[in-house]
Specification:
- Keywords: Metal-binding, Transferase, Zinc.
- The protein is of the alpha/beta class and about 350 residues long.
- The chain is built from twelve helices and ten strands.
- The strands form two sheets. It has an eight-stranded parallel β-barrel, surrounded by eight helices. A two-stranded antiparallel sheet has the order 5-6.
Length: about 350
């Protein structure tokens, strides 16, 4: 992405898209009963409350009534339908892990992502979500790496079985699965939202585009949670933003008390933000922070920065929901990427003429 002399001025930046992840599948309801509802009506109402607070993208997971993370697509269908009915404008982004939560403390060893074929079935959800997040490249996902004992010690993650399971978790996202998943999502008219852990992931996405394996808008989230992913070092996400194609959108995501400072820097840089209890249970003072309170905090700071909050219609336009391209050449041009090298061409390829 390019930064000009006026790029830090709010009038030159897109309106701010706020993604909220309010379902927190890694937590047990007892960890934050004030903000984790297990009923279907309560989960739908959570989306409504977050939308009313200013979030236009809902990162969606689903729970069973016993509090465990749901792995049943029928429950996801029910939740999506309920959210569509109550807040039809909201962008529904289904978490591509479905739910990595174990069934119980005793099943801690099962805290892992589901099979390739089950994850492919996200392309068959009814009603259809706007987006499904997709991981690229198999990666260690130790979500405990940046959590202090003070943060997880009084939660279900203090259980030795769960702690070990989440510490050893791996994201399975090999080349064959990624290519097939992209094919199924785009065939279903669902936009992939790329959840990327480091620069090699971004380079892999660029190769997918250049080889014609993905032809559509690039909505990227840099996930700085450590444990096999980038850590919340500004040098990491600044390089990611610098290397992201000019026509892409970038959202920054982190964990626990890194969430707020990373989000503030994202807002200053003209990027987008994510908040919610999936990312942090706490504010900067160590107090519990609900997902709605996290959104309200973001909107207050955005106002001070002069950054307008995107409406749902504006967020759909920024993300180019429903848009797909017809060729590699069109995709590269729309994303502001240099064209592929022509046969026999020497030197550095030129960008498309404006």
């Amino acid at each position: 992405m390019q930064f000009l002399d006026d790029s830090l001025l709010p009038e030159t930046q897109d309106d701010l898209v706020i993604t909220v992840a309010p379902y927190g599948p890694e937590w047990h309801p007892d960890d934050f009963p004030e903000d984790i509802d297990v009923t279907m009506e309560g989960q739908i109402q959570k989306a409504v409350d977050c939308y009313n607070a200013g979030a236009t993208v809902l990162h969606l997971h689903c729970r069973e009534e016993d509090g465990t993370g749901s792995k049943h697509l029928s429950k996801f269908n029910e939740l999506i339908a309920g959210v569509r009915d109550r807040v039809p404008e909201m962008i529904i982004q289904v978490g591509g892990s479905i739910s990595f939560s174990p069934e119980s403390e005793e099943d801690g060893a099962e805290a892992k992502w589901l099979s390739d074929e089950v994850r492919h079935m996200l392309a068959e959800l009814t009603p259809k979500p706007d987006q499904v997040t997709i991981a690229v490249n198999t990666t260690q996902m130790n979500i405990m790496d940046l959590m202090s004992e003070a943060e997880y010690g009084n939660t279900s993650l203090a259980s030795p079985a769960l702690y070990h399971a989440y510490r050893e978790m791996v994201v399975p996202a090999g080349p064959q699965w990624v290519e097939e998943h992209l094919r199924r999502l785009t065939a279903a008219g669902i936009q992939p939202h790329f959840q990327l852990t480091c620069m090699p992931d971004l380079e892999t996405v660029e190769r997918l585009v250049r080889r014609g394996l993905y032809k559509g808008p690039l909505n990227l989230t840099w996930v700085g949670i450590g444990g096999g992913f980038d850590g919340p070092n500004p040098n990491n996400f600044m390089e990611f933003i610098r290397r992201a194609p000019d026509g892409a959108t970038v959202t920054l995501e982190s964990v626990m008390r890194n969430v707020l400072p990373v989000n503030v820097m994202a807002m200053c840089l003209g990027q987008h933000v994510r908040c919610g209890i999936e990312d942090t249970l706490y504010d900067q003072h160590g107090n519990k922070l609900t997902s709605v309170q996290g959104i309200e905090q973001i909107t207050r700071i955005a106002r001070e920065l002069g950054r307008e909050i995107a409406t749902a219609a504006e967020a759909r336009k920024i993300y180019k929901i429903g848009v797909q391209y017809n060729s590699v050449e069109e995709t590269l041009a729309q994303l502001g990427m240099p064209p592929n090298r022509a046969p026999g061409q020497r030197a550095i390829p030129n960008r498309y003429a404006a």
